[in-house]
Amino acid sequence: MARKKISKKIKQEIWAVISIALGVLIMLALAGSLGVAGEWINLFSLRLFGLGVWIFPIVLISIGIALLLNSFIKFSKSSILGILLLFFSIQALLQLSNLEISSFVNNSVNALHFERGGIFGVSTTLLFLMFFGTLGSKIIFTTFFLIGFLITFQLSLTGILFTLWVGIVALFTPKPLTKLELKLKAKEVKLQEKLKKQAVALEIRRGVSENQNAELQNLEPQKNQEELLEKSKILQENINKKQNDKNSGVFEINRGKEEEVPVVKIEESKKSCSRPENQSFSQWIPPSLSLLKKGSSVVHVSDKELRKIGAKIVEKLGHFKIGVEMKSAFVGPTVTQFALKPDETVKLSKITGLKNELALALSAENVRIEAPIVGKNLVGIEIPNRERSTVLMREIINSKKFLKHKGDLRLCLGKDVSGEAQIEALEDMPHLLIAGATGSGKSVGMNSFIISMLYKNSPSDLRFIMVDPKRVELMPYEGIPHLLTPVITDDSKALSALRWSVAEMMRRLDDFSKVGARNIKEYNEVMLSRAAKQEAEKQEKIEKIEKELRKSLEEKLKS
Questions:
Q1: What is the per-residue DSSP string for 165-190?
Q2: For residue 90, which phi and psi values (nearest 5 degrees)?
Q3: Where are the alpha helices (DSSP H) in 285-344?
């Protein structure tokens, strides 16, 4: 019958138990609790090793625990050498801790029995004391101790020193405030400021009230009451009148002899809009750029850092036997694009398939590969900037590209990777649908489009119909002269506005066909040529902006 071989793990655990048991037995012997055998071990070991004998049981127990855990010490020849260096250096240092060279040479016999290092300690330090003295010997054996420690435990001295330094710095450095503590502190500061303002306002009111009381004492109470009643009646009448006007609002479309269009209730009457019926905007002055926040979206990245990242990209692609040549780098507000020219034999699919590998090599959150760059024989690798900047509207509206753009309905889209302003004309895309998850920037994009058009078009050229059921994003535009109707917040009225828009679009298409115009621009040119004969008027552009299209579609399906 074949014998079962004991596994390596079981052997290791057996040696661990033996090592721990020996360590415990030696410790009991040194403490005088192991009978006659313990007395012999105690006498022999103390003379041989001195006080260093207590190291033996500690080392044996540590080795046993390490073997059980299999993580503390990885035993090898170097580990054994490290343990021996540790032991003998400790023996020598114990001997040197209270020994002068003169007493050691003159009383060497007593040293064999009574000194801390025992026979091993005396024999180890004798030669070093004669040649290097006490101080030199201590330095040498301390060095041996450190070497033995590093070999045994496989540790880095710089790592240990760095950890100690970090711990010391952490002790004397105030801990940074957590987000919760920062919020509480900010609230506390705001509360203190509010209390100060209230205190100042209270003092002012006290002073004013004292003066008013002195004046009111000279007036007749009956007269004051009559005046107050009269004012309250006038105020109530004005409120009722405004409420009646608001509730009875009707938006009518009437184009003279043209085909009749259904009367639609939108929200308030056209008369209540901020733009009066006969107001002329021929001398319209666009809003000042000072209303927009001033700043720069330029990100400063050193040439040295760009070359370093470029070299990493080339090196990483080279590991996969893809030869490329770095051509240029474009630093944008949020990303930096590195333009590479691959060798003629390289397939682009090989480069695009290494997106994750490049992100790992560059420690980047995400890497986008444009292969090829539009209009160029280059491959673009886009890496997010560590410091990102915000692209501001003022910077784009004041750019040459926006000012020289031929479109009337110019939209500021932002900046490309090279930092150039991107402008598009809404005429080329008359139906614009913005979709995306919450927080992806839909509202920011929509507001930038509205502001772009407001800075270029007068109310006589462009009118808006805005629908905002949530009453959040589009309500700030309430009251601008470009509004065809006040901002619509009712879902049912939003559906009516949609129907009116469709009917108006169909009516205008009929107008265009009558004069042979393909779009509103050609139609207005024809109308301007007939303006002298007073045959027709110019038609303004109407843009419908809807914040929640889904709700309108649901209402449409219900109806």
A1: HHHHHHHHSPPPPPHHHHHHHHHHHH
A2: -65, -40
A3: 303-319
Helix, strand, coil percentages, rounded to 5, for the chain: 60, 10, 35
Outline where 50-178 has alpha helix (H).
55-69, 77-96, 101-106, 108-114, 118-153, 157-172
In this prediction the pTM is: 0.47
- Give the span between the Cα atoms of 530 and 534, in whole angstroms: 6
Q: Which residue has the tokens 């060095």?
A: 143
438 shares its domain with 373: no
Phi, psi torsion values for 340, nearest 5 degrees: -120, 145
Confidence (pLDDT) at 249: 40
Which of these, 496, 5, 530, lies nearest to 262 by C-alpha position? 496
Answer yes or no: do 353 and 453 share one domain.
Answer: no
CA-to-CA distance for 1 and 10, rounded, in angstroms?
Answer: 21
Distance CA 66, CA 231 (A): 93
Cα distance between residue 422 and residue 416, in whole Å: 7
Asked if 464 contacts 543 with a C-beta cutoff of 8 angstroms, the reply is yes
CATH number at residue 517: 3.40.50.300
Q: What angle do CA 33, 37, 40 make, to 5 degrees?
A: 100
**Are residues 22 and 159 located together in one domain of the fold?**
yes
Q: How many domains does the chain have?
A: 4
- Is there a domain that residue 36 lies in? yes
Torsion of CA 157, 159, 165, 167, to 10 degrees: -120
248 burial class (0-12, 13-18, 19+ CB within 10 angstroms)?
A: exposed
Integer Cα distance of 419 and 416 in angstroms: 5
Specify whether 362 is located in the same domain as 425.
no
Rounded to whole angstroms, the Cα distance separating 521 from 510 reads 15
Domain containing 198: what range? Answer: 176-216
Query: Residue 484 and residue 108: Cα distance in Å, rounded?
Result: 112
DSSP one-letter code for 462: E
Question: Could you identify the residue written with the tokens 């109310």?
Answer: 459
Q: List CB contacts of 266: < 8 A, sequence separation 6 or more.
A: 249, 251, 465, 485, 488, 493, 496, 497, 500
What pLDDT score was predicted for residue 98? 58
| pLDDT value of position 341 | 92
Asked if residue 81 and residue 27 are part of one domain, the reply reads yes
Please give the pLDDT value at position 264: 41
Write down the H helix ranges in 248-294.
none
Low-confidence ranges of the chain (pLDDT < 70): 1-4, 42-44, 46-52, 70-77, 79-80, 98-121, 153, 173-183, 193-194, 196-282, 297, 430, 531-537, 549-559
Q: Say whether both 310 and 343 belong to one domain.
A: yes
Question: Which residues are CB-neighbours of 471 under 8 A, at least 6 positions away?
Answer: 489
Distances (CA, A) of 283 to 286, 405, 410, 458: 10, 22, 21, 9
